[in-house]
Design brief:
Layout (H helix, E strand, L loop, with lengths): L1 H9 L1 E9 L14 H11 L3 E4 L4 E4 L12 E9 L4 E9 L7
Parallel strand pairs: 3-5
Antiparallel strand pairs: 1-2, 1-4, 2-3, 4-5
Length: 101
């Protein structure tokens, strides 16, 4: 239990779009498919879920929890590992725009 609290205390917040590590910001390989389908198909093939923050794509540690957020803008609490370029996901939630409330 203390480990969970410690991890959350050390966590940073990352905001961006859930993508795959192959396509990153641009899903041009499957032009006739929406972005979420492209992300899912790339991950199924051999890519990993990632977070695109507008500049960089970071691999996400939790490939199961992030799957339902493909091509959606999210806020992630987690710890970034510079060496592996991976965000260890503690929590993930969709970013709701003012127009969606």
């Amino acid at each position: 239990m203390i480990t969970i609290f410690l991890a959350l205390a050390l966590a940073e917040t990352f905001t961006g779009v859930v993508t795959d590590t192959m396509c990153g910001a641009k899903h041009t390989m499957m032009k006739d498919q929406p972005d979420d389908k492209c992300v899912q198909m790339c991950v199924k093939a051999s890519s990993d879920y990632g977070l695109y923050d507008g500049k960089n794509v970071y691999k996400l540690s939790d490939q199961t929890k992030t799957a339902k957020f493909a091509a959606q803008k999210v806020k992630i609490a987690g710890i970034y590992n510079e060496k592996t370029k991976t965000i260890k996901v503690a929590s993930i939630e969709p970013v709701v725009s003012d127009g969606q409330k």
